[in-house]
């Protein structure tokens, strides 16, 4: 496995070493010791999975407020996504800035998003499945979000925003300014 740091301190892109032959491929998707040594000294307590049928489905931007903040390790199992992490740490010099990565089932890339970031993604293929490990359990009371189309954040989503497929919850998320 190897990783690349991104433009904001914290999130990292993780790449598996893939072994391919005539049968297909094999890779180790996660190794606790390697992850703790190279990415973050955390423990994962829950695995989540989503299926999005339509291209252009946007899920996010989501986060959990303390004391239920979550770090997330995201991987695409089928299809591909444009994955985004937005820095929402109030005292950070990169507050409101974002980084992104395309994650594909074929490539096996993973994005580590530490606590203190909002997360969202846009599906690039039909019937896309996303799997992610989290460092804290879900708490409905602490479940929060930020508007995916907030002009202050100005995410360059890969689809026209008026064609985004959204949940009612994601359509009504507050602006980033509500966090300050």
TrEMBL record:
<dbReference type="InterPro" id="IPR000888">
    <property type="entry name" value="RmlC-like"/>
</dbReference>
<dbReference type="GO" id="GO:0008830">
    <property type="term" value="F:dTDP-4-dehydrorhamnose 3,5-epimerase activity"/>
</dbReference>
<dbReference type="InterPro" id="IPR011051">
    <property type="entry name" value="RmlC_Cupin_sf"/>
</dbReference>
<dbReference type="InterPro" id="IPR014710">
    <property type="entry name" value="RmlC-like_jellyroll"/>
</dbReference>
<comment type="similarity">
    <text>Belongs to the dTDP-4-dehydrorhamnose 3,5-epimerase family.</text>
</comment>
<comment type="pathway">
    <text>Carbohydrate biosynthesis; dTDP-L-rhamnose biosynthesis.</text>
</comment>
<keyword id="KW-0413">Isomerase</keyword>
<protein>
    <recommendedName>
        <fullName>dTDP-4-dehydrorhamnose 3,5-epimerase</fullName>
        <ecNumber>5.1.3.13</ecNumber>
    </recommendedName>
</protein>
<dbReference type="Pfam" id="PF00908">
    <property type="entry name" value="dTDP_sugar_isom"/>
</dbReference>
<comment type="subunit">
    <text>Homodimer.</text>
</comment>
<comment type="function">
    <text>Catalyzes the epimerization of the C3' and C5'positions of dTDP-6-deoxy-D-xylo-4-hexulose, forming dTDP-6-deoxy-L-lyxo-4-hexulose.</text>
</comment>
